[in-house]
Specification:
With 525 residues, the protein is mainly α. It has 19 helices and two strands. It has helices at residues 9-41, 45-79, 85-109, 111-118, 141-148, 157-178, 185-203, 215-240, 242-260, 270-291, 322-326, 335-346, 359-362, 410-419, 428-435, 439-448, 459-471, 479-485, 493-503; strands at 125-126, 135-136.
Length: 525
């Protein structure tokens, strides 16, 4: 045995462990490296689907930019009398078709930008979120749509050239921004479903094309992009739910054929389009999203959303979320008690100074919660107030109240009525004093607001109770609603024709938006 000292045994073990750790680490890194290489060569089906849709969107943005640049050039030549009216209109139509092919994602990611710069209504608007009234002139394709459709566009050639230059500049800014966005599976499916709603409510109604009424070819172009996006997911869906994939494939083909054959704006059967195409696809795409395990927007936030994504129809009773618009939690265990209390207050003249006038004096249930008068009677039946009493049915879905749109909150609108000398002519302190004299009301308020004892009888609880009652006045049970949902197979032929007129030739649907036919703008509502 050598006389040299031998290293302790634990030293050898530690060295061995260090060597093993290095080997394992290097091996793991190599595995990850080669796995990464393989993922680029053989991407998973869900990654491949998303890659295809992203590529589709980016190419569409480039094509739209090229179409806008060509349109700008034609418009400039038109200013110099070097281009015909037909060439100008052709460039306009081609630009709009290119835009429609990317609309579903473009609008999904930047609705306000598209509305303001690319395709907003041709109406002046007020600069939002500023302390003063600043009028803003409209820009974009809808404004141009009216100008190029005029009998003599030459009279507007300078304005057309200016608007196309601005359009080119504005689109480039939006394109640069959107081309850098990371698209997810959820974005794709939500954008597709929103586009179905947009296509029906803003597209085939003529809202988007106020001058040319080129709505049907544009609907076909927009739908073609949805079809392409779905095809990217079709193999993945077939591996999960083959029957659903086959059904969606047939639905997309059927709708594409339906739109390809549509060539007359005035005679287009919009009700058939809704019932046989839009609604079924809207429901099936949600089923596909669920089958693929893709999260919904509701699963990413605790905040209420305006649209219930699980709704199967635009005319589903739960399509719109009343709680979102009323700023109320309809799932609150006290909500039913508060709505019942609000109903009692609604019919009680105790809210007015003379104890003779109630909310129901002007909003009469037997008349659809109106009074049937052009303008409602004032206090004591003397004279008339400045406003008509609108129906309260589905009014919870409004974004603003009163004819001048001065009040955005349902619960706060009662204050305007309370203090108006021609209406209730009183104050909240006077109302609260009278309510506190009633043992019955004190108990009802205490029960309904047991979770907020300091607000039992207060301006807040009075307003909140009334708002809760009004929020409960939703109605999606008309014969038409039931027919669209398939709850009944019959609809009066006159109602069928009337709906098609309303949503088409008569131009009603471009201001009274489905499904509640008010001014709340789809598809995000």
């Amino acid at each position: 045995m050598s006389g040299r000292l031998q290293p302790p045994r634990h030293f050898s073990i530690r060295k061995m462990l260090l060597t093993m750790n290095k080997t394992i680490t290097i091996t793991a890194l190599l595995v990850l490296f080669f796995a990464g290489l393989m993922s680029f060569k053989n991407s998973s089906p869900d990654t491949e689907a998303l890659r295809k849709v992203t590529q589709q969107f980016h190419l569409g943005l480039e094509e739209t930019a090229e179409a806008i640049a060509a349109y700008e050039s034609v418009a400039q030549n038109f200013t110099n009398d070097a281009t015909s009216i037909s060439q100008l209109r052709k460039a306009h139509a081609e630009t709009r078709l290119s835009f429609k092919k990317v609309e579903f994602l473009l609008e999904y990611f930047d609705r306000s930008g598209v509305k303001r710069y690319l395709n907003g209504p041709p109406l002046p608007f007020v600069e939002p979120n500023v302390p003063e009234v600043i009028p803003v002139e409209p820009l974009g394709l809808q404004v141009l749509d009216e100008l190029v459709a005029e009998e003599n566009p030459f009279a507007e050639k300078a304005e057309i050239a200016r608007l196309t230059r601005q359009l080119s500049k504005d689109f480039e800014g939006l394109r640069q921004f959107q081309s850098k966005l990371k698209i997810t599976h959820r974005h794709v499916f939500e954008a597709m479903r929103q586009e179905l709603v947009r296509m029906f409510t803003l597209g085939v109604t003529g809202f988007d094309t106020p001058g040319t009424l080129h709505a049907l070819p544009e609907a076909s172009a927009a739908f073609g992009s949805l079809n392409t996006a779905f095809r990217a997911y079709q193999p993945l869906l077939e591996s999960k739910e083959r029957g659903l994939a086959i059904l969606l494939d047939a639905r997309f083909e059927h709708t594409a054929q339906f739109l390809a054959q549509a060539d007359n704006f005035e005679n287009f059967d919009r009700l058939a389009f809704l019932k046989k195409h839009i609604d079924p696809l809207y429901e099936l795409l949600f089923q596909a999203q669920m089958a693929l395990g893709i999260e919904t927007a509701a699963e990413t936030t605790d905040l209420p959303l305006p649209v219930n994504q699980a709704a199967r129809s635009l005319f589903d009773e739960k399509f719109l979320n009343a709680g979102y618009y009323a700023n109320l939690d309809l799932s609150n265990p006290f909500f039913e008690k508060r709505a019942a209390l609000g109903r009692l207050l609604f019919f009680d003249p105790i809210l007015s100074s003379n104890n003779q006038r109630a909310c129901a004096s002007c909003h009469q249930p037997e008349k659809g919660f109106t009074d049937g008068l052009p303008k409602s009677l004032g206090m004591d039946g003397q004279g008339h107030i400045k406003r008509n009493a609108p129906t309260l049915l589905n009014c919870v879905y409004a974004e603003n109240f009163f004819y001048d749109l001065r009040e955005p909150q349902l619960a706060r609108q009662i204050l305007h009525v309370v203090v108006d000398s021609a209406e209730f002519a009183t104050t909240y302190p006077q109302i609260i004093e009278k309510l506190n004299q009633s043992a019955e009301y004190k108990k009802l308020f205490a029960d309904a607001y047991a979770d907020s004892p300091k607000y039992t009888i207060s301006p807040y609880s009075v307003s909140d109770a009334l708002a809760s009652f009004v929020a409960s006045l939703t109605s999606f049970q008309s014969p038409f609603d039931r027919f669209v949902r398939g709850d009944t197979a019959f609809l009066d032929p006159a109602a069928y024709r009337g709906f098609n007129l309303f949503m088409g030739k008569a131009n009603c649907g471009i201001c009274h938006f489905a499904p509640v036919f008010n001014g709340t703008v789809p598809p995000a509502y």
